[in-house]
Each structure stands twice: as structure tokens, then as C-alpha cells.
Amino acid sequence: MNSIEEKPIKQASFLDALIPITVLVCLLGAAVYLFGDNSSSGPNQIALLFATFTAALIGLKNGYTWKKLEQAMIEGITLSLGAIIILLMVGALIGTWLLSGTVPTLIYYGLQIINPSWFYAASCLICGIVAMSIGSSWTTAATIGVALLGVATGLGLEQVVTAGAVISGAYFGDKLSPLSETTNLAPAVAGADLFEHIHHMLWTTVPSFIIALIIFIFMGFNAGGSTEAGRIDEIVNLLEQNFNIGFEMLVPLVVLLFLAIRKMPAFPAISIGAVLGAIWAMLFQSDLINSQIDASQGQAIGYFKLVWTTFFDGFSIDTGDEKMDSLLSGGGMAGMLTTTWLIMTALMFGAIMEKTGLLDMFVKSILKIAKSTGSLITATIATCIGTNAVAADQYIAIVVPGRMFKDEYEKRGLKPVNLSRTLEDGGTITSPLIPWNTCGAYMQSVLLINPFDYAMYAFFNLINPFLAVVYAYFGIKILRITPKHLKQEANAE
């Protein structure tokens, strides 16, 4: 005789789907209210866990076994492991690049080259070019973005606006790069050709980027040169006193960008960059290292111990200037553990919501009211944004809505590139604006600015989804094919 039979699975209701979402929104709101910018250091994770337990209870009520729910959570965490190992190695890279003088050198030359009046626009454009070249918004933010924030500090400009410019440029370049994972994923899910997808994206992406650049230019002129030249000279002198500055310090960055362009996977490329940073530190920053090591066990062991520590605990320096100390200290794998915890809890919640059919229930409800092409594309963008908030991962925000809406687009005679572009306009672009999303958590860990703070200045990421909706309602660049049911009728004849 068979073991006890499993209960039949009941279909989730709209109320079932609404309960865990309501719990999550209320708890996340309470976390921000009670803990402010520190909400991502633990409170948000607890909110996500309680929301996960709520969704699991609804799943149990509907007939799912705990074993199946637990397996879904494990699979959800598994999806994040690739991002987590990259995140940890980025922490090591930032630490060794601070010690090697790579980041200080970028700041040093940036202070002397970039004018405050066009700094925001230049930051956006530089990040866009780099991200398009290497296909990675994450690598761009962790390298060029970190340095640009340092330059902004030296110029007396707003860090949150600079972060918005970095995010805008990084995601613009990432979105249009054939090397980008999301740019390949969206057409694969929608059934579109990669290069046709990129060409179709230009119609919403380029105008959005141009508008963002214009806004950054005006903001730069209004910001002016709020820092006296004496302060810039002071920072430059501090950098010269504490680091060996020179173009040779940029070799680790050049090597990393070259490896990325050559399509080396992110983890080994970033690992090589981090190791190269450590080697460069020992070759060119001997005075700095000698001032920091414990030589009680011998100088060689002191060197080795300091570099080893930089990998896991980051780098710190005492220049006598508190702001510069904050700017030139950081990194290390340990500094990424809070973000890792946030990513894991967020994906557990997303996995439970998908497994129990609660996400699908939302989409079915949306399709009932999405009668026109404009409303369908708007609904797709809204679903991508909602999935980014609920499932907390940009890949899920592309794959899940893509699977759910693909047949509907075909039935209505819409070419697959319409869906693939919309998945990027709603999924890829909005992911860094949500603090508990994997992208938002990552950006906060490397830029050290809460996504809620920089979101209002990430103009490209805000304008692009809005412009996509405008295009949809006015029928601009909406490509059509023969609807699926008419094809079937023609074949039957």
C-alpha cells in the first residue's frame, strides 16, 4: 500500500496572492521608518523572512507539502549563488584596488580632468561607454563608479546625484551590449533575434539616455564649483602623500576591462583583477604597506598578512582627513555578507511566490483588464517592476513575465521583439532601484548609497519605462505579425 497521499493542490486566489505582498510592504515600510538607511543591514532581511513564512503558510493551506516548499526555497537560493560568488570577489577587488592605488589614481586624475559643471553628465556617459564595452553594469559600478564617487567628493558635488548618474550610464550601456547576460536573456525568453532585439531597444533607450544626459548637464551647471580649488589641492596632496600615483596603477583596470571585452566569465575575470591588484600593491605601494604591517613576525610575513586581510576584510587608511579616510577605505568579502544575506532571503520569498502560483495569479488578473496593445505593454512593464520587488531578482523579472505574456503577444499579432524590449524596459532597468533586489543590494554594497536615496536621480532608469508606455499607447515602433489564431485558420484551409 502507498504512503499517505498528498492533498490535491488548490488554485491560489487573488486574496492568497495579496496577503504575503501586503505583509512584505508593511514590514519593509516599518523597517525603513524605524531603521532608516540601516534597514538593509538586517531589518529588510527579517521582513522578507516573515513574508516568506506567510507565503509558505498559504502554500500549505492550498495543499503544498513543506518538502516541496523547502525545495523551492533551496532552488531560489541556488539561483543566486552565481551572483553571490561574484559579489564576494568584487569585495576583494575593491579592497586590493584601494591598497594598490588603482582607485586613488582614478580619483587623482579625475579631479584634475573633469570640470564640476559637466561632471554628472560625464560620469553618466563614461559609465555608459564602459558598460557597453564589457556588458556588465555590476563591474562598471564597482570600478569606474566607485572612483567617480571619490571624484565627486573632491569636487564638492552630491554623492547621491553621482550615484544616479553612474547607475543611469551603467544600465544604459549594459542594456545595449551584446555581451550582457540580460540582453541575451530577454530575446531568448521572448523568441526574438538578439541583434534585432538590440536594434528595437534603441527606439526607447537612446531618447531616454539623451533626456537623462540633458538633465545631468543642467544639474551640473546649477551645482557649479561648490568646492574651493584649495580643497581639491588638499585632496590631491593627500593622495600623493599616501599613495604612489601613476598611470601604471591603472593596469589592473585595463586588464579587467580587456578580459570582460574578451567575454571571460565575470567571476574569473574579477578574481584575476583582484589578484593583480594585490600584486600591484606589493610592487608599487611598499611605503604604504610598510606603514600598515605588523613586522613582529618579519617583513615578508607582514606583507603577506596585510594583503590576505585586504581580500577578506578590506583596506583602511588614516590620512588625518575623516572624509578621505571614509573614501579610501572599504572593500573585502566580509563587507558583502549583509548583501549576501539580503539576496538569499529575497530570492527565498520570490521562489515561494512563484512555486505556489501566487505570482501567476497577479498576471491573470492583469490580463483581464489589458485589452489594448498599450495596456498590454503597460501591464508587462508593471509586472516586471512588481516581480523585481517581489521576487527580488532581475533575471526572474525577465523570465517569469516573459513566459506568462509570450502567448498573449503572439495571439495579438505582436512581434517577439516588442515583448523582449518591454522585458528590458520594465525588468532590467528598474532592478537597481529596489534596495532588496539583488541589483539594488549590490549597488548599495559597492556605492555605499541606499537605492531609495539615488533612485530619484537615476533618470535614465526612471524615464525609460515611462517612455516605453508612451510609445505603446501611441503605437510608435510597435512591430506586428500575423496573429496566432489567424495563422492556425490559414493552415487549416
Automatic annotation (TrEMBL):
Every Na+/H+ antiporter NhaC-like C-terminal domain range: 169-476
Cellular-component GO terms for this entry: plasma membrane
Similarity annotation: Belongs to the NhaC Na(+)/H(+) (TC 2.A.35) antiporter family.
Segments crossing the lipid bilayer: 12-34, 46-64, 76-98, 118-139, 146-172, 201-221, 267-284, 333-353, 454-474
Keywords attached to this entry: Antiport, Cell membrane, Membrane, Transmembrane, Transmembrane helix, Transport
Organism of provenance: Pseudoalteromonas lipolytica
Xref: Pfam families: Na_H_antiporter
One MF term in the entry's GO annotations: antiporter activity
Principal location listed in the UniProt entry: membrane
Protein name in UniProt: Na+/H+ antiporter NhaC
Membrane topology: Multi-pass membrane protein
Top-level lineage group: Bacteria
Compartments where found: Cell membrane
